[in-house]
Every structure is written in structure tokens, then in C-alpha cells.
Amino acid sequence: MDLKSSHTAPVLTDPAPISKSRLGVHSSLLPYSPPGAFSSDLFLAIPRKKTGVLDDVRANSWLDAMKASSPPHKKMAKESINEVGSPDKDVAYRTWLLQYPSALASFEQIMNCAKGKRIALFLDYDGTLSPIVDNPDCAFMSDAMRAVVKKVAKYFPTAIISGRSRDKVFEFVRLTELYYAGSHGMDIMGPVRQSVSKDDPDNIRSTDEQGKEVTLFQPAKEFLPMIVEVFHSLVENTKEIKGVKVENNKFCVSVHYRNVEEKYWATVAQCVDEILKQYPRLRLTHGRKVLEVRPVINWDKGKAVMFLLESLGLSNCDDVLPIYVGDDRTDEDAFKVLREGNCGYGILVSSAPKESKAFYSLRDPSEVLEFLKSFVMWKQSSAL
Do residues 349 and 361 lie in contact, with contact meaning Cβ atoms separated by under 8 Å? Predict the structure, then answer.
């Protein structure tokens, strides 16, 4: 099966990464960038040992990215009302759909490609299975979504890969039928990998909630003490900024500024900058109104997908079709792996046009729900 696409990049895009030329920094001043690091990891743009003006440039570059990717909440709420029926918005979205067709409208086409193949399903959590909410502690999935995910997992190997800690995702989902990868894939609970040496420090034999033997894969385990330090420092440094929430996601720290007035976003960036300068082995990435501090290791959601496929005995198989559904920048690593490997489909969840490595799109979690229901119905009907 040829999964190659003729998709071209849409006109409306996410904010471009901060480049060396935009910052006016000579490449000889830049620290080493490990293989696989995000091109948009903004901390790489400025040398860590410099202070003063260069620190201001770095903090300001973060602020620019925050503004570009995260319009103020009140403005978004107002626009969400005014945009209903807006001809310009409708035209832009319909044009974008030519590049990233609706996975619901294209369901039959996807299933035609899936005939005779084993499907493996990978799902993001926030913005995919649950709506984006002001308080990240309240990002609950609906009972209907939980029920359909449970049914899907009955028929297909299913994993949730999230930026949240693995424990937090499980608390939200509460389904033992799934595999879970937290901290952007740096904390994976998957099937036991017989090929892995018991002496491998990154692989730990454990048991899940049902007493079933599983493998815990934690490639950033050595960073745990550092992450705890950074978490406490960020909590302390941002405690005077109204609306900031600092979340410890075990192998990364998330600084949510969704409820912070835009005039204080620069203060948030400066607080994170001051802490991050002390930790050259950590990097900064950004998502939807969140700054995330993560270890500098060659690992991401795309590699987590490949790890889980291998663990499930589904890697390098012509009869396997992986499908990944996600909404955020970090999900692009998984989309990229599937596209470049010509082995599966990425589905972007977005109600606004933006550039992506995905093949298809869905508007929001409600469409994700309908898409998963279609999967269940297709499997049930094919079994008759």
C-alpha cells in the first residue's frame, strides 16, 4: 500500500521557529544540539553562559512565540462567537481541508487501506480525548468518550501518548485495557519486551493495576531529581503571577499561562528563563498556552510510537497500519514518523488551519468521538 500523499503545506501556518538569523546570533555561539532535538526548542537559540542583553533577547523570543501560538483567552472566546458563519474563516478552513481532508468524510478510504491489516491506534489526551480547559486538572473525558475508547481497545492495540505524567493520564482515563506513555513518551508502560536485557536500566519489569506483567521504559530516569528541583523553583518564582499553574509531569515540567493576562506573559517567560539558565541539560518547548521544560535527550512521541509498535510485535510489518490522533505541536513528531516511514496515518485535531505532517484532520474531540465510533462499527460489521 502506498501511503504517500500529495499534500502541500497550507498557507496558514503555526508560528515559525525562532531561527539563528532572526535572533542575530552567529552559529558558532550556539551550544551543541543533540540529534532529534526540536528545531523549535527555543532555548537553543541563545548561549547559556551569556547574560544581560542576550538573556533579554532569549526571554523576548519566548514571549514572541507565546503570543504567536496563544492568542489571549478573552480574545479567543470573543472570536469564537464572531467567527461563526464568517465567510473568510469558512473559505480558509475549506481550502485547508483540501490539504488535510476530514478523517470522518474519508473514513471509507482509510478503511479500504486497512483491509487485511492490523490496526494500531495511538491517541493524544488533552484536546483530543478531552477538550482544552482553563484548569488542566479538570480536563475530564466524557463518559461517552471513555466507553468508545474502551471498545476500540477491545479490537485494536490502543495507546495514549501524552505530555502529562503517565499516572495523571491514567487517573483521567481509568482504562486498564490501554497502554500509556506519559511525559511526551519518556515514561511508557507497555507489553513485556522479551528481546530486552533484564540489565537494561531504562527498562523495568513491573505489574499494572490488574497484576499483569508489563515493561516500564523510562529513558530520562536520571533527570528525575533535576526535574523535581526545577518544578519547586518554578513554583516559587511564579507564585506572585496570577493565573500561572506549574505542573510536575514527572519527566517534564509544564508552566500553564492560559489564565494569565497577556501583559504578564513577559514576566512568565523571564521567570522560566532565570531558572532554565541554571540547567543546560534541559530545554524549553511550547504548546497551546504552555511552556514545557524537558530533558535534552533524543526522544519524543514519534520514537514512543515506534517503541510501542516494536513492543507489540508490530514493527517492520507490511500488514500493520498505525494511526495517530493528536492536536498539539508535540504530536507532529509522531505524524512525521508515520509519514516519512510511509507506514500509517496521522490525524490532526484542529478547528483552525495550520501546517502539519498529518494526512487527515478532525475538528475537535466531538469528531474524534464519532471517528472512534466508526472504527467500532466497522470492526463489528466486518466480523459478521
Answer: yes
